[in-house]
């Protein structure tokens, strides 16, 4: 698969992922808004005394209080109580209630340790009252053996806005990052790999951090959702500045390394990871390892030396060096995603470079041939191509327009 097709396919995958993430964030935002409305309106159900103090009681619908600002009571029978598991907040029980119309209702609730005895005593012979508000059970009263306990359900208002709002903000940040990466990869698939930090990494991290900032703001946005917007904007702006500084420094270091590339003619045989791409017989050289030395350039099956000519495939013709550059996104995949280890055994990989050449004579004269290798190994390839003497390596530099073009590429 050529690089451009690869970019379009994976860009489309990222766009689809972004649509899923943003759709999920939208659903969470709708849920958070409903929960916020419940948190804001539920205090209107509280009963206050003549001095305006909360009595700890809630309004129950009847002759005195009418919906929607009251709890609707429903008497049910406790058919079954099953202890499921114990969590840090207490044991969880599965209740099955028999309703007056013959249907059953199942609820899973957290129960305090002090209430377990009454809850288990209600199994099969207790009674309960469910308190509904806005189509959800908010409270449960269970009575057994002359004792009564009140249990809050998971839908009891009180900062219920925070979890869906925080999770939705984080998912929205990830979705925006995926959407940017997908669209940029589809539209700008031929840009240099040297600019990936500007194109995808810096914007992606900025969007993700902005989403996390919005999630942090959700902890303080119960009464003012704009707090989420402010925190997301501040965190996103700080992240954008930091990532811009990082990307600028990263690109400048790579440009400096590119300008310092000089050919070195190897005195002895040297093997290192590398890739070759070209038409006709050049395509057969993509074995993953290259050999330089007095014998010239060749593709080899592995790093082992002293194996004679077994598996060695010499280059089928002479090459003329055109330029040295980083991998481009329209290069073949074996050049774009090759991982060039250091020959000394260090774990950190080398920065990949590509020598763009033109075949001189040979079976395919004038063909475009690309040789990929690490920044520490490519000078030996250039030394063979340029015929530099081992004692006095020539001070070869890429044309001045190469660096300028890489800086201005977007």
Query: Which sheet architecture does the biggest sheet show?
Result: 7 strands, antiparallel
Number of strands: 15
* Oligomeric state of the chains present here: single chain
Backbone structural class: alpha+beta
Distance between the termini: 24 Å
Helix content: 25-40%
Principal-axes geometry comes out as: elongated
Contiguous helical run count: 8
Mean pLDDT, to the nearest integer, reads 79
Describe the structure in your own words:
- Helices cover 36% and strands 25% of the residues.
- It has 410 residues and is α+β, with helices and mostly antiparallel strands.
- Helix 1 packs antiparallel against helix 3 (162-187), helix 3 (162-187) packs antiparallel against helix 4 (196-217) and helix 4 runs antiparallel to helix 5.
- The longest helix is centred in the first third of the chain and has 39 residues, at 3-41.
- It starts with a helix and ends with a helix.
Question: Tags for this entry?
Answer:
410 residues, alpha+beta, 8 helices, 7-stranded antiparallel beta sheet
Write a brief structural summary.
With 410 residues, this protein is an alpha+beta fold. Helices cover 36% and strands 25% of the residues.
């Amino acid at each position: 698969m050529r690089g451009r097709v690869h970019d379009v396919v994976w860009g489309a995958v990222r766009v689809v992922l972004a649509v899923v993430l943003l759709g999920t964030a939208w659903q969470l935002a709708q849920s958070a808004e409903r929960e916020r409305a419940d948190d804001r309106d539920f205090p209107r159900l509280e009963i206050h005394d003549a001095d305006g103090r909360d009595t700890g009681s809630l309004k129950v619908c009847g002759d005195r209080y009418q919906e929607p600002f009251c709890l609707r009571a429903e008497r049910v029978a406790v058919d079954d109580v099953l202890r499921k598991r114990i969590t840090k907040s207490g044991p969880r029980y599965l209740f099955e209630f028999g309703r007056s119309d013959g249907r059953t209702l199942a609820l899973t609730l957290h129960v305090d340790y002090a209430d377990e005895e009454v809850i288990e005593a209600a199994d099969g012979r207790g009674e309960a009252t469910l308190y509904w508000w806005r189509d959800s059970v908010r409270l449960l009263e269970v009575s057994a053996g002359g004792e009564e306990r009140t249990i809050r359900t998971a839908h009891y208002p009180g900062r219920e806005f925070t979890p869906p709002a925080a999770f939705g903000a984080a998912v929205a940040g990830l979705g925006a990052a995926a959407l940017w990466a997908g669209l940029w990869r589809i539209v700008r698939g031929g840009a240099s790999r040297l600019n990936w930090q500007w194109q995808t990494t810096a914007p992606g991290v900025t969007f993700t951090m902005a989403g996390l900032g919005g999630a942090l703001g959700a902890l303080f946005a119960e009464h003012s959702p704009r707090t989420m917007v402010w925190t997301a904007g501040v965190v996103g702006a700080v992240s954008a500045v930091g990532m811009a500084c990082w990307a600028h420094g990263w690109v400048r270091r790579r440009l400096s390394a590119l300008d310092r590339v000089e050919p070195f003619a190897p005195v002895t045989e040297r093997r290192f990871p590398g890739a070759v791409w070209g038409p006709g017989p050049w395509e057969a050289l993509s074995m993953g390892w290259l050999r330089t030395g007095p014998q010239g350039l060749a593709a080899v099956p592995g790093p082992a030396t002293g194996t004679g000519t077994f598996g060695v495939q010499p280059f089928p013709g002479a090459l003329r060096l055109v330029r040295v550059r980083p991998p481009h996104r329209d290069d073949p995949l074996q050049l774009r995603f090759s991982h060039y280890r250091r020959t000394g055994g260090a774990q950190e990989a080398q920065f990949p470079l590509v020598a763009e050449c033109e075949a001189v004579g040979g079976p395919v004269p004038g063909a475009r041939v690309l040789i990929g290798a690490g920044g520490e190994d490519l000078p030996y390839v250039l030394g063979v191509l340029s015929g530099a003497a081992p004692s006095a390596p020539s001070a070869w530099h890429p044309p001045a327009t190469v660096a300028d073009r890489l800086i201005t590429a977007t």
